[in-house]
Amino acid sequence: MSEVARYTRRLVLGAGLAMTATVALGGALGSAAFAADTVKLGVSIPAATHGFTGGIVWWANQAKAELEKAHPNLKVTVKTASGAPEQANQLQDLVTVTKIDSLVIFPFESAALTQPVMQAKKKGVYVTVVDRGLTDTSAQDAYIAGDNTAFGRIPAEYIAKKYNGKANIVALRGIPTTLDNERWEAFTGVLKQYPDIKILDGKYANWNRDDAFKVTQDFLTRFKDIDVVWAADDDMAFGVLKAIEQAKRTDIKEVFGGAGSKTMVKTILDGSNPLIRADVSYSPKFIYDAIKMTAEARLKGDKLPATHIIPSSLITKENAKEFYFPDSPY
Amino acid sequence: MSTAKPARRFDPHRFGPVVGLLLLLIVGTALNPDFATWDNLMNVLTRTAFIGIISIGMCFVIISGGIDLSVGSMAALIAGGMILLMNALAGSVGSPVAVVMLGMLFALLLGGGFGLAHGYLITRGRIEPFIVTLGTLGIFRAVLTWLADGGAITLDNDLSDAYGPVYYGSLIGIPVPVWVFLAVSVAGAVLLNRTAFGRYVQAIGSNEQVARFAAVDVDRVKLLTYGLLGVCVGIATVLYVPRLGSASPTTGLLWELEAIAAVIVGGTSFKGGEGRIAGTLIGAVLLSVISNILNLTSIISVYLNAAVQGCVIIAVAFLQRRRP
Lengths: 330, 324
Hints:
The structure holds two protein chains of two kinds. The longest helix of chain A is centred in the first third of the chain and has 35 residues, at 2-36. Chain A is of the alpha/beta class. Chain A has helices spanning 2-36, 51-70, 84-96, 110-122, 148-162, 178-191, 209-222, 234-247, 262-270, 286-300; strands at residues 39-46, 74-81, 102-105, 126-130, 142-146, 167-173, 197-204, 228-230, 254-256, 279-280, 307-310, 314-315. Helices cover 49% and strands 18% of the residues of chain A. Chain B is an all-alpha fold. In chain B, 71% of the residues lie in helices and 2% in strands. Chain B contains 14 helices and four strands. Chain B has a two-stranded antiparallel sheet with strand order 1-4. In chain B, a hairpin with a 2-residue loop joins strand 2 and strand 3 (174-175). In chain B, helix 2 crosses helix 9 and helix 2 (38-63) runs antiparallel to helix 11. Classes of the chains: A alpha/beta, B mainly alpha. Chains A and B meet through helix 2, strand 7, helix 7 and helix 8 of A and helix 2 and helix 13 of B.
């Protein structure tokens, strides 16, 4: 009996050991094959047409400089496009001419770029998609994004708490997009729980200073009693502040921007404008994180988690220092 | 030529823009009583001033049979350039007022220079105005984006305070930009209707060959219309910069289309040869009134704003159409 038992035990153990060894060896061989090669990483992003994308371009180049210095066997190519068709063309060039093996892409438009990215992935390129997602997620290996729901939720919670559930709010929205809808729904969703908080109206100001100035002028004409302006973007907050200043309105207690631009973070840090007390982070730095994570994982032959959300946090005077990057253009 | 018309008959189509504007004013007042307040009307006129001044220059170019697609980018680059210059001078030149004056002069020179360069390429280089200005549309904005490193170029605080009154100040209750807009319009009307230059512009637009035979120096007149438009863009920028004290890659986006729309809605023929300064002024005001009314009300889904604007533009153009 014991003879049989011992034999069986040895057999099972041996098989297990063999299997482990095979897996380990295979893994080692696999990663050795990857790690020995150089990594050619392509970065495809929108051109600097406003403050935020200006930041994206700056952080992408920052990542290229730092990572290429740290890893001699890494080559990063950064391409900027001013529209979806141009980006699709650049993508083709990156795959066929530059012969990239990894790609970090911030798609100009979700639907239009899905097929081109799919084609690149089929040719064996490892794909990390940033921020604006694709319509078919099977075209990507990893997805890294800022938290748009938190971008709308955090200011709403902050306002509700600070004004004890009683305030008149006007809101400025960005460009009509799903991303803007997501933020807007999160914002209004929270405030629905507070019957004494009134959102007087929300209009599109297209993430643009000039449009924000005009829309705010008209809000100020229309509403005599406003407590808070949710500008939903720091560029727009800039136009809002100028319009309030011009109208000499004193009823407005706070302007809440968004995205944590360096001027606004500095204003919070210095306490230099009583209307600007807090902000929510949605830093273009996430492109830097995405490039770094992808490059380092690929150099080691690892994979990234399928989805990685970079949290948005509330910026106040206490923690503003951590969000202040004076060299970035945004 | 228009000055030699035999008799001035009443032409109902001439009044399309005025009728359109009056209708809009009535609608605006009915929808929101705050619409007709002095402050709101002054807000609207002030924000129209930039596009309005550019439209006056654009009116000359279109009457002469040309076009300029670059004015929005040009305004952005001039704004960025003058802010950089003023910031650089702030340390060395004593008073902020002097720095601002130099900045303003620089803006006008730069605008005039860009305009003349357009005119030169179009007349001597024999390139279509559409192509030349399509090219510079890209060049101007790209250079600004590069200068701004993709972010914003912002005016120093001290200079901002000194410069502020140019946009925010007012004379007899009327904001400075509105006065400037009026002055440019009057000057434009006089230039177009009372001078030889104005007659030449119209003659070239209606038939360039005939104008050439009539010993009009076509190239020189054309060159000057683009130069004039450039100076208008410079003036508009001088008024624009103190508003936000900054220039970014979105500054002046689509201004070219707004200016062209104002000229066309104002009754100037897109084919050239004939046009009106007063109509252009009304056209520009009309376009801002539409967006003002949309901001003051919330009847229509915000997604449809552009559709409402498009409908009004087409309706006004219909009101002032002429028989072929």
